[in-house]
Amino acid sequence: MPSFDEVLKEAGEFGRFQKRVFFLLCQTGVTFSFLFASVVFLGQAPESYWCRIPGAAELSARCGWTLEEERNLTLLPLRLANESSGRECERLDTTWDTSVSCANPLARYGARGAGSLPHTACRGDWVYEQPHASIVSEYDLVCGNAWMLDLTQAILNLGFLAGAFTLGYAADRYGRILIYLLSCLGVGICGVIVAFAPNFTVFSIFRFLQGAFSKGSWMTCYVIVMEIIGSDQRIIGIMIQIFFTVGIMILPGIAYWIPNWQGIQLAISLPNFLFLLYYWAVPESPRWLLTRKKGEKALKIMRDIAKHNGKYLSPHYTEITVSNEEVSNPSFLDMFRTPQMRRNTLILMYAWFTSALIYQGLVMRLGIAGGNLYLDFFISGAVELPAALLILVTIDRIGRRPPFAIGNIVAGISCLITAFLPEDLPWLKTTVATLGRLGITMAFEIVYLVNTELYPTTLRNFGVSLCSSLCDLGGTIAPFLLFRLAAIWLELPLIIFSILAVVCGFLVLLLPETKGMSLPETVDDVEQLS
What we know:
Number of strands: 4
Mean pLDDT: 83
Radius of gyration: 27 Å
Number of domains: 3
CATH class of the largest domain: Mainly Alpha
Strand content: under 5%
Structural class: mainly alpha
Shape: elongated
Order of helices and strands: HHHEHHEEEHHHHHHHHHHHHHHHHH
Distance between the termini: 27 Å
CATH architecture of the largest domain: Up-down Bundle
């Protein structure tokens, strides 16, 4: 009986069939990147807002004021009272008399003058010139509630974390394509509900669920692609990451042409329903079928692959070699039972955590620099393309470990240098910071590939999902770490980033080299990797 890799080589390791499946599934990376970075555009700060004084709504309606006129009458007394006050977050501690003159609604305070009136913190009656432009104006995430905007991204990352555990486990137990399709359906439904959420609580719950389903679809599609191609073509795993970058570059264009957050949310969510058509185009992973003792189904799929690739499988093949290892449902302890699995898991978890924390931290740090949001965001995505090209050039020549380690170390050194460069050399700080972004992008893209190659088929989806859950933890911590440390010293986050990255660079050198090796089928195969 032939092994799976022998049959795959005869059927074609990356023929017409695999290229079609690769292209179809890679679209998931585009929509995943939309959700991953969408908060930048969903949560844009409103250009103008103020706190309405009690009685102002009735008086404004009676006097026929425009929003601009009401705004001036509301904020002018605050300017007179306190030049340094946070005018948008405060209001006059009084009530407008709706019976007075429209020209001077504060006339009854007479000689004291408007400038001497007391003021107090706003209690929620904000007015926005564009009330539905973003979730900030939709749910009043301003002033004392501004922290809730950061919470929305933390909730999304917690959803990623939940999806990594639950759907990663489910994909190893119930099948790759079933969980992929269910996840895509969940992303679409939850995304639509988020767009029409009546309050912040509903918004947060379904944003969490959308994150969970999105992580399930992204990780499962990656595993399916890696399991149907040959060992010499696994560099394709890096190509999948390029589609993520393409999504990052497309997103600002969507946000530029759609003027409100509901429209943006629908635009990034509805395409997931199209992925349900893959039921007729993408088969179950034959590797997974073999681990579940379903050799006949696996062989049938391999014959279809060979046919589409213009190849021919010997009719004498009646079944494919199946591992004698007892098939069991994956568990958390399986990641740590044996020495090599334990070492690989711990190092990969740290690598995922570090990559996500630094990557998101550098992206958000770029975002607070000001300038044209849409153009800056596009450029920050375009910077990632050279990183992918560097990987494609080096990874099959010198292996996985050297570029993995170098990417982390370059990122760490670049962050450290950027922290101590003088402010009067902004071009140099930007250049060195961009080099750090290149380095951490390389590390981030390689960890996907290496993680897939270091786990057996019986545990691969769960292993990738478990380790990448630390990525979601890093993403949850990143906004709070960045802004809290920056409040102490603007460059302090870069010092932390540099330490984490350099340590990671040396740790990944302890992982086994997987260049040119077949994917391990069993835990014993992993233990034999040197």
